[in-house]
Amino acid sequence: MTSITTRRRLALFAAAFAATLGLGLSTSAFAQAWPNKPVRMIVPFPAGAAPDVIARLVADKLGTAWGQSVIVDNRPGAGGIPGMSALVRSANDGYTIGFIPAAVLTLTPELYKNPQFNPDTDIVPVAAVGTSP
């Protein structure tokens, strides 16, 4: 997957997220209704972990705002590699988004010989959800 397709997918998510928040983006800019099917949110942590809890809260709010289900797909293990691999290899249709804690993007590529993703070219951050000490 090239960085252009990943960037396009994440740009679509950013535009939809910004429109949801009422940041002045016009819905007429979209060629067709989006989302018109459930959206998958990949979380590279197990169910019940702090990132999962926050992702589920965000997914609930996005689902209500979009009028579609946002399904949390937990892919735990190996410093987030299974989840990140699923995100990077997902279809370029705008219906798969990632909920990625900063530690996965910063530490995993340094700790693992083959992380199977490049945070500089495969991932484009679109929104900060929160911070913690």
Defining key terms:
single chain, 133 residues, alpha/beta, D-Maltodextrin-Binding Protein, domain 2, three-stranded parallel sheet, 5 helices
Give an overview of the whole structure.
It is a single chain. This protein is an alpha/beta fold and 133 residues long. The chain is built from five helices and three strands; from the N terminus they run αβαβαβαα. The protein has a three-stranded parallel β-sheet.
Order of helices and strands: HEHEHEHH
- List the uncertain runs: 18-27
Q: What's the tally of helices?
A: 5
Classify the oligomer: single chain
User: C-alpha Rg, in Å?
Assistant: 15 Å
List the helices and strands and how they pair.
Layout: H1 3-20, E1 39-43, H2 50-66, E2 70-74, H3 81-88, E3 96-98, H4 102-106, H5 108-111
Parallel strand pairs: 1-2, 1-3
